[in-house]
Amino acid sequence: MSGPLESSSRAEALEQEAARPAKRAKTTTQDDVLSQLCQSHEAGASLLSLPDGVLHHVLAQLSSPELNALGATSKYFRSLDKASGLPLTHRFAKEALVRILGDEKQAMRWRGYTWPQRLAIEETVTKFDRDQSDEKFTFKEMAGAMEGTTGVTEIKLDVPGPRILVSDQSTAESPILRWKLQLRGNNAAEFGVVPTDFTSLRDAAKALHKCHPNGSDERATGFSSAITVGSLLPARLPIMKGTIVELLVTPRELSFIITNPDDGAEMIWQNNSTISRPYKGPRELRLQLARNYTTPIKLAVTAWQRAAFDVLHTTPKAMPPTTAPAVAVPAAVAEPAAAVKQALTEAPAAALLLAPAN
User: Fold this and answer.
1) In-domain check, residue 316
2) Model-wide pTM > 0.85
3) Digit-coded pLDDT (tens) for 284-336
4) In 3D, which of 279, 343, 308, 255 has the Cα closest to residue 70?
5) Which domain of life is it from (predicted)?
């Protein structure tokens, strides 16, 4: 028979058990690698056992590949968040994008992609190939450029054109390529992609539309400004001083977003000379092309004399907005967050497949 003392101890134990916070259920299909992603080696605790405040602080610091890897570790991170109606990793990818860009409309500008995919696009910083591109371009360097940035804030061409500038990486090295350039000089320009056939670039091509087909009969493609004479690219669009051109290559498409200034003046030809007139067309133009290339491609821009471009994709996601208020993070929150982020960084990177968004 149990005595009164034993019954009292048992009652106290049951009361303490009831007072403990409920643990989140883990998936039973985690393998050793994915389990490592969930475990903090330094903190010695599972992400799923962290308090909500600490967990949210951790998720807010993760990049798109890290969020994607985390989503593969447990159903909890793929479950719908009640407040936003999004999967938890998608919610934090959206919050990160809005924090970077300061505007939800800007964060949604790439249509047909999920929030982690949009974050991956924004984190992509594609540099310029100064060795393979024409040596006549001049580059203004960023003072104290951080690792992972382009290091360039302005590109100019002061000699007669056309001259071609290409990206340092192709789709063979990076699944996503992105430039964001603002036109400041000569309005004549071409934007697009070119197959990585450097023989044609060196020997003959000085412009996108002059690149010879490669061995697979694949040609450069893109668009030219409406004022550019002689361009054979498939589209001509109005661009002017102050126009922002975004070029994006993903595994499924080539996309261009052209944003013209509200008070822009476009150049037109009249009596064999150019004159300016107020631009009254749509502020935003979009061009999407199917990616049918079987060989790697690079981003490319053709410029003529007195061309100038501000480089707007210089700053990566890792650099926080300068307007963000300083928040003191307790050590009890910061240390587990840093440890979990380190574990995710050391683990094998999960591929962020840019499949169409559901």
Assistant:
1) no
2) no
3) 999 999 998 999 999 999 999 899 999 998 754 444 433 333 334 444 444 44
4) 343
5) Eukaryota
